[in-house]
């Protein structure tokens, strides 16, 4: 591995790191030598086993930090525990997210507020606390968004609003924190198969996604994690204030009525 891509000696905080894309990110960063603060919600009895396995496999430290972002004091408590274990912070990955389906007309205010709290307010507070620990050494904040920060879908307007806000937060933070040597980048996945959505994908039919997505298939968590790991490295030292879509071209969808071959002439 190129030295510019290695993360040995660095510490990464990954929210929502116990499963799906978050777990793949934890594993990818640890494989490159980073020590990990693995955040998960409370009550996950299997996370300690995951942390021990990743730590042993890669010869790094992996500490589990539990908290629920819906609680007002959760993030203060998370960083209090973080500071008791780690002496530095180099990488923040805001991966934890929350999504429900609800039409706008009947949506309870509590659903709207909870969606924004977890997907937008919590990442802001975590990044804010993180950058205070990165100065003056520098570091990187990577916000995991979604293609729905640009493409809306029925029943997901509240989620799209939160993710669009996260994207704009990343742009503003990149401008403000560049003077401290802190980069901020947004990674927006498309249709990615995880433990949580695998059943839904198969109920809808993987072949439909193959038709909808120009790449012809649903993505895998490792394909998102590898992008995050690169962005966390010195190899991406000139990348900040932008968004990277990991979606197989899903946002550049096909015009379905046009069956002409790509090079048919006029």
List keywords for this structure.
266 residues, 7-stranded parallel β-sheet, alpha/beta, two-stranded parallel ribbon, single chain, 41% helix, 9 strands
Describe the model:
The chain has eight helices and nine strands. Helix content is 41%, strand content 16%. The protein is α/β, with parallel strands linked by helices and 266 residues long. Helix 1 runs parallel beside helix 2 and helix 4 packs parallel to helix 5. Strand 4, helix 4 and strand 5 form a beta-alpha-beta unit. The radius of gyration is 19 Å and the shape is globular. The mean pLDDT is 92. The longest helix has 26 residues. It has a seven-stranded parallel beta sheet with strand order 3-2-1-4-5-6-9, with helices on both faces. The protein has a two-stranded parallel ribbon with strand order 7-8. The chain starts with 10 loop residues before the first strand and ends in a 20-residue tail after the last strand.
| Number of helices, counting only DSSP H or I runs of 4 residues or more | 8
What is the strand tally?
9
Shape: globular
Q: Which sheet architecture does the biggest sheet show?
A: 7 strands, parallel
């Amino acid at each position: 591995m190129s030295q510019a891509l290695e993360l040995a000696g660095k510490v990464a905080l990954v929210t929502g790191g116990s499963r799906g894309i978050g777990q793949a990110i934890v594993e990818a960063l640890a494989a490159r030598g980073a020590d990990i603060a693995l955040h998960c919600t409370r009550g996950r009895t299997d996370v300690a086993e995951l942390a021990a396995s990743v730590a042993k496999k890669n010869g790094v430290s992996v500490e589990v930090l539990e908290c629920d972002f819906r609680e007002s004091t959760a993030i203060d408590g998370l960083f209090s525990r973080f500071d008791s274990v780690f002496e530095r912070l180099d990488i923040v990955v805001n991966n934890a997210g929350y999504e429900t389906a609800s039409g706008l007309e009947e949506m309870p205010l509590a659903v709207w507020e909870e969606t924004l709290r977890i997907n937008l307010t919590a990442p802001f507070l975590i990044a804010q606390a993180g950058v205070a620990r990165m100065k003056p050494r520098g570091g990187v904040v990577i916000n995991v968004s979604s293609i729905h920060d640009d493409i809306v879908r029925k029943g997901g307007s509240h989620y799209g609003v939160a993710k669009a806000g996260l994207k704009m937060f990343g742009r503003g933070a990149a401008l403000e924190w560049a003077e401290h040597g802190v980069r901020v980048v947004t990674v927006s996945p498309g249709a990615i198969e995880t433990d949580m959505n695998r059943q839904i994908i198969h109920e809808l039919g993987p072949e439909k996604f193959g038709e909808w997505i120009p790449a012809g298939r649903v993505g895998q968590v490792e394909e998102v994690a590898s992008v995050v790991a690169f962005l966390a490295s010195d190899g991406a030292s000139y990348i900040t204030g932008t968004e990277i879509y990991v979606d197989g071209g899903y946002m550049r969808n096909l015009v379905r009525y046009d069956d002409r071959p790509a090079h048919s002439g006029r």
